[in-house]
User: Fold these one by one.
Assistant:
Number 1:
Amino acid sequence: KQLTKEEVIRIFEEHERRWARLGTLEVLSWYAFPWPILKTPESLEELTMLAIEAYVLSKHHPDGDKKTSKDRIKDHIKRWHPDRFETKLLPKVREDDRERVKEGAGVVARNLNDLLRRQSSSNALFG
């Protein structure tokens, strides 16, 4: 079903609260993470390029009128970058969830980097 503008805005607000909380929690699980898609993923397969693109480039994104698409993508890349993610957050993930979270973060980081490349090349063509 199509989400309303209000539902999408609520998802973004909840995700910001979750990012703020991640650093304060001692133990994390798959469901603690604000995965950058518009629904809570049950599996890695749901972390698709299309779903991530719909989230990051949503017209209801809180930074939508302040930042370019490229800057929004870069902000997400910083959050999900393996160097930062695997040293700061991954050690807190429950042992039985750790591999799946690591793989999920890797999928997200790769998709965000691909999205940034696509944005850069389309800007070069049409900018």
Number 2:
Amino acid sequence: MGSTVLWVENGGIVGRGVLLDYASWAEEHGIQINCFSTSSISVSFLKEIAISQGTTLKTGDILFIRTGWTHAYEKLSAEQCQELASVKVPPALGVESSEETLRWIWNEGFAAVAGDMPSFEAWPYQNTDFWLHEWVLAGWGFPIGELFDLDRLSQECRKRNRWSFFFSSVPLKVPGGVASPPNGVAIS
């Protein structure tokens, strides 16, 4: 039985969501972001973002990371989109593939991780020993969300100066399913 079916049968993915806004933090710190390059976001950056936002991470949190990828993609011309699609392994900004990242995710006790990029980790991944997808999804059995539109959520969190919210998503019920488009909702 695929893990997606288990999540559906147990009420979906529901809990406290926390947004770490890397895109805004990087801009505030003069860090240039190229969403279409293999650029890694380190654990030290993620910890700094949480501190700068006044965000306390808790066991069971559903972690969301906003990189600005979806916003950057939506600004591409049709020709640029086609060019990106023609790359055999298109590079993308994401979380660093490392033992440190895995230990941080595990030690923080996150229930799920997600982001606005096509791969939660920088792509193509840099370290074959610590490919996050294999460890987190297949090894630990908890969900990874990708291509979430986090721009409006980021604006709302900034306006309220609160980066946590109630999150709920029920994946499609497909026998043997291992993936589903998200139908998530964040309530602040």
Number 3:
Amino acid sequence: MSYTPILPFSGYAGWSLLNRTMERQMTAFTASQDIQRSETYFREKIGSIKTAEDLVADRRLLTVALGAFGLEGDINNKHFILKVLNEGTLEPGSLANALSDKSYFKLSEAFGFGDFSVPRTQLSDFADEILQKYESRQFEAAVGETDDSLRLALSARRELPEIAAKQSTQRAGWYAVIGSRPMSSYLQTALGLPSQVASLDVDQQVEIYRQKAFEVLGSSDLSVLAASDSLEKLNRLYFARVQIAEVSFTSPAAVALTLLQS
């Protein structure tokens, strides 16, 4: 049996309530039968996994592994996942490095099949590391089933500090932001950027995002954006713009236009 997050409100009110009840709701979510069953199996079996082929051959383990990085939709793309895992991350020409979505890089890096003679699955704390990510991602997904804007806000709060801390340069950080579908979608809305931005050359996107961030927050430094006060401002802007878009879409004029087009 799974746990459905309690989300009686949408928008910033819903975000505030979710934050106040987060600890209690996360505890209930991770204690649910579905999550516990998956985690118990992962803990018992992951130490026996020595190769990417071993992992991909076990659908239950692979489900948790992909779910920890928001990639559960690729569960049936076994050849693709094998290539990502086996090529690793250390070679510049590896598939994980070539893909714009850096979730695959994180997956390959975490397991280490292509980077080390002994994979990271053999580390004593490996299961804890992956399951912590799995719980966070699955809770976000469960929230998203009710309210996708809340899911994106949760994702941004998790990802933005990670990106800011890990990247060696500001430009590399912005590339990582654009390469993350949840992050780029969230910031596109929060900063008031049009959806057409995503179709531009990636270097142009970086300049547009940085310029807009400076206009809105007074800085384009990702470590500044990841600070709690900046995230709070971004969240207020994000939910305000989501609400405006929803009201605009459901206004009498929008409804009439939809009826005429149907």
Number 4:
Amino acid sequence: MNNEVAFKLDGYKFTKAILNFDIPQKAELDINFKPSGKFYEKDGCYKLFFDTAVIYKETDTVVISISCIASFSFNGKIRFNDIPEFFYPNSLAIIFPYIRAFVSTLSLQANTSPIVLPTVNLMGLTDILCKNTSVVK
């Protein structure tokens, strides 16, 4: 009997986007991530809420702030405790390229260099996402 749990990305949307270009040309920037999730037991689906902020280090000014919601489904009805550990880091890794592309597109304008987020190892966010996941009955 095969007990593997597979999942897929059903869709995503950006629910908030803030852009502030009032920073120096060669500003040093920081990236902050805030992942959280909700598992809907009735439907067996998971919603990933992934907030990303780019901050100008010197003044703590928010340059870009976006919120993204991604919907994932599993291959069959599962309970919260059946979600495999690999789901959490992989869900972040799946949605992050879309966030990178959105930030680049949002910040692209004439006479200004776009903000391009680097590729990032998101494994460090796994525990945060697990702790910030709630169950909706």
